[in-house]
Amino acid sequence: METKMQEEKVWKVLIADDEKKVCQLIRYLVPWEELHLSVAAVVYNGLEAIEVLKEQEIDIVITDARMPECDGIELVKWCHQQRLNLKYIVISGYRHFEYAHGALQYGVDAYLLKPINQQELIDSLKKLVDILKEERSTRESLLKIQSQHQRDRDKLRRHFISSYIFDGRKLLDRRIDSLEEINEVYQMGFTEGVFRAICIKVDNVENSSYKIDKLLERLRETAEEGLKGFGSEEVGVLIHSGILLFLNYPKESEPLLIQKVEELYQKLEKTLDIFEGLRMTIGISCQAGQIGEIHRCIVTAGDAVRYRILLPNQDIIWYDRHQYQQVPVEQIFTPERRELLQNQLRASSMDGLRKLLFELRFSIKQYRNISPLTIYYILQETVDAAMEVFEELVEQRADGFSMFDTFAEKEDSAQEEESLWQALLELLDSCIEVIGRELVMQQTKPIRVIKEYVEEHFAESITLELVSEQVNLSANYVSAIFRKETGVTFSDYLTAKRMEHAVELLRKTDYPIAQVAEYVGYTSVKYFCRLCKKTLGMKPSEYRKLYS
């Protein structure tokens, strides 16, 4: 693919000659497209050529040696002074040594004499195109090697966090090797000192339509650059709607960390200011003295971000500065309340669910300084209980899973406690709606199956008992629910369906009446005719004459 792209590149040519006829001749003599060349500009003196070179990217310059104001040799000299990597063909009507010498001095690639020989010009251009291709290939290969080396190093460093320690939202329970082993294997620069994790959370609080994936990558680069030099190591990875940074620095630098984090916040905020509806929270983990505590650092950095639901005006939250009371979930969301929630869902009682959530919130407020994490855990247990009922009652759960995903997104971006409870209330309301639809579908499913069976077998001998067997229900029950759902008896529905097909055959075919009756499930022609008289108001033969 790369070779093909190189061959298809079109190289740009600038023609400079004070004789317009010579310029026209050059354009005429060369099969530009065949050589993958295009004429970018034609000028008539060296000064005009310089202006073009300032504005456009040119690959080859074809210039006359002698021109007014600025000749070809002076033009080439100017290009060298500007360090422009171009190829040059100088054309001259003179064999004078000084022109050829001047051209060679500045690395002119070809020196042609007037009158211009077409083949010499084409051969010179072919040679220059080959040289340009080779230089481009070499340059790209070198850049690729350098880029790959840097990517491999960066990939190794981030692999330490994203795969060795942290997989998505799940921490991996692995033994942490010594600093020396980690530094050697993952090309890290860890030293003895302090270890911390920083979680930078970016939330789309106004539900704007744009995605933030590319923005997060840009923020990660800014964050790593902003912390560079503060400690021995700083490495970041992208996580869901945020960035996780791991920082290692000397103990004596601890007092400077507050200022460094505030400066980092200001830098990142400038990038976010371009976008509307985004809000950033930075969570700083607990302080750790050993690399083996990296798991705790990552957990507590995320916990610090979650603290924001009780600290709505803080954008930088330090885990160490808050001492919250951890309360067991079962003390508030008791087994009795769990059972009540599930029963209210089964009964589709939204009022009962609102009352239960009010009681949960009231119980939470009875604890002084309760941890925001306890609130999250209670909500998660509530959602798990709702999911159990949902899976119990709903066969097709696509809509439901979508709702649970929506709740997870709202939970993840919640800025205050009220938003969490509102999201939970909306989820339960949606659950009741979907469960209700599912129950209706389950009640009407036998009717749908019976109608489909009639549509496929109307020409056969069909009875109420036969179709009842298709749905594993009693004939009396099927008779009752069929009339309730359709407004007609099963016998009348079957007759109407057969008459629909009979009418089509009478109008569109010349089959005998007896054959039409047989095709729609009647062996008696007299009975078929009586039904036609009753449903159509006329005999089959009369209907055919009138509508065929």
Helix and strand composition category: alpha/beta
Strand order of the largest sheet: 2-1-3-4-5
The N- and C-terminal alpha carbons lie at a distance of 66 Å
SS strand fraction: 5-15%
On the 0 to 100 scale, the average pLDDT is 84
Range of helix content:
55-70%
Shape descriptor = flat
Q: Report the radius of gyration as a whole number of Å.
A: 41 Å
Number of helices: 22
Main sheet properties: 5 strands, parallel
Poorly predicted tracts of residues: 1-6
Features:
22 helices; 5-stranded parallel β-sheet; 548 residues; flat; 12 strands; alpha/beta
Structure write-up:
With about 550 residues, this protein is α/β, with parallel strands linked by helices. Helices cover about 60% and strands about 10% of the residues. The chain is built from 22 helices and twelve strands. The strands form three sheets. The protein has a five-stranded parallel sheet with strand order 2-1-3-4-5, with helices on both faces. It has a five-stranded mixed sheet with strand order 9-10-8-11-12, with helices on both faces. Strands 6-7 form a two-stranded antiparallel sheet.
Please give a quick description of this structure.
The protein has 548 residues and is of the alpha/beta class.
